[in-house]
């Protein structure tokens, strides 16, 4: 299922992830410092939680995310580089091997894989065997990175569906890119805010949660900003019985009621209505 009208709430890694992964969002007055993360909520609801990362653990862009990651029951960073440049000694497919560390039991689980994805610098995100679109400009590098990321997601999906405990794979980005600029709020273009968001779910999930699947089908082309990802995930994981969940923000609920008229990005400075203009 592809939710094909999804936007980054803020086209920079830390603010976008901080809101996507916590109860804080643009539409509520709850301050980030007081907002629980989806990991805290899932732990309390009896999920066992994992965070596997190929991002840097420490550094200006990474430390706030690491604070959230450390709330998982189990954490592992395969990437040991430190510093301001986003780099790793590994390509993202290495993360997939870590899935084997998770016992294939019926216990409820939430596993977050934090990839490097297609983040700048694009040419560092794929092995040379994925250099299909050439190597002479940033757009080519970005296209190669996307091609590789598709391969990573396909490989991950094949691994997950071979397990008995597979329920769903959800993919969402923190922000998009303009290959020639990157992602820079001062040089904003809508390409930087348009992001992928898709879900692959098992037959078992679809049968048990038919209301959720029906709502997603109804809502899949409605606009969504990724700061509401917390509410979506509470709904999708069936952890609605917590004071921070707001069905109005949950695109997997038939109560989802955000419209393009009231949705914004970049600290409310841009309206989603203008995205199509
Ligand atoms: Zn980012």
UniProtKB/TrEMBL annotation:
Which keywords does the record carry?
Cell membrane, Membrane, Transferase, Transmembrane, Transmembrane helix
Q: Where does it mainly reside?
A: membrane
List each copy of the Sulfatase N-terminal domain by range: 2-215
How this chain sits in the membrane, per its record, is: Multi-pass membrane protein
Entry annotated with the keyword Membrane: yes
Q: Name one GO cellular component term.
A: plasma membrane
A Gene Ontology BP annotation from the UniProt entry = lipopolysaccharide core region biosynthetic process
Pfam families tied to this protein = Sulfatase
CDD domains (alphabetical): LptA
- Highest taxon in the source lineage: Bacteria
Q: Does the keyword Transmembrane helix feature in the UniProt annotation?
A: yes
What does the UniProt entry say about where the protein is found? Cell membrane
GO MF terms here are: phosphotransferase activity, phosphate group as acceptor
The name on file for this protein is: Phosphoethanolamine transferase
Question: What species does this protein belong to?
Answer: Sutterella seckii
Which taxonomic lineage is given here?
A: Bacteria, Pseudomonadati, Pseudomonadota, Betaproteobacteria, Burkholderiales
